[in-house]
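Subject: complex prediction, re-run

Hi both,

The earlier run crashed halfway through, so I resubmitted it with identical inputs.
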Amino acid sequence: MEKRAIMLLIILMAVGWAAAPCLAQEKMHVVDNAIFPDTRCSPALFDHDGHNEKAGIDDCGVCHHVYQNGRKSEVETSEDSACVECHALKAGADNPIGLRRAFHLRCIGCHQIGEVGPLMCAECHPRASLH
Amino acid sequence: MIHTLYKLLSGPMMWLAVILFCAGTLYRLWTIFRLVRRKEKFICSYLSLRYSLRSLVHWLTPFASLNMRLNPVMTVVSFAFHICLLFVPLFLLAHIVLWEQAWGIHWWALPDLVADIMSLVVPAACIYFAIRRIRKPEVRYVTGVGDYLLLGLIALPFVTGFYCRMQWPGYGPVMLVHMFSGQVLLATLPFTRLSHMVLMWFTRSYMGSEFGAVRHARDY
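This time it finished cleanly. Structure:
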């Protein structure tokens, strides 16, 4: 009986140990970077809800904005479309800000104004989550 | 704290470093040309484009000068050092991303592993130069404390840059040291031995012209 209990405990521990990284993964949120053809750093760490709660952002249009004729729309937002739909990978005549620059300006730009949040490469792109 | 220092270093301090570099370079050129006009105006009579270029090409090509052939290790280390020193800051992806973020401009970037190795070549070469300064009597004779400090100052942005690239502990503060040391290097460049970056073109033209047009000999 005791032997069986020990076996069960070992099995439970093994399962728990094996499942731990998967559970942690569930909690980890990153910005999907699959659209970039040649990614050389890890996807940016970003916990959407946690971030907005901390930053006190209620207006989706702060990040999911819509620009019309060079002006940000007061009413329209763009949660239903991917960033790349407006910010193509390469900047061009109808897309003044390329995707990578748009991400960096959106995140770091806001952090610089508010003087809070990450600024430097590794703070969002840690090497550990690269593989 | 980090935000305030980062803002200072990435903004006003960076501009100050660039302005000091440009103004310092112009000042050095102006004082040297003024000196030439006063004391050695005659060099204008034999300054030759052909002999200037002959000298520059020979001194910019590995093993094309006698001195380089006599010191093969120094030649290899020196060329590797200069190439890495110039290429890594300009063609590092992390730097290009910052140009892009600020002005929307970007260009070809070095592959990661190549950039890693190249940024280690610089401090390694600095160690070689320091040992050479200690061990070779003819070099030790013309060496002062400032020369060792200068080697340290050159190595510092590369060592801290590599440290940040590896994301070792203390990443944030080390990044600030990286930025500041690079700015000090840039701002002081025209006033140290490193001014040969700008002046070398003129000293070689001077030597090349005198050796070629007057002495009818080689300066390489």
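Chain A has a mean pLDDT of 85.

- K.
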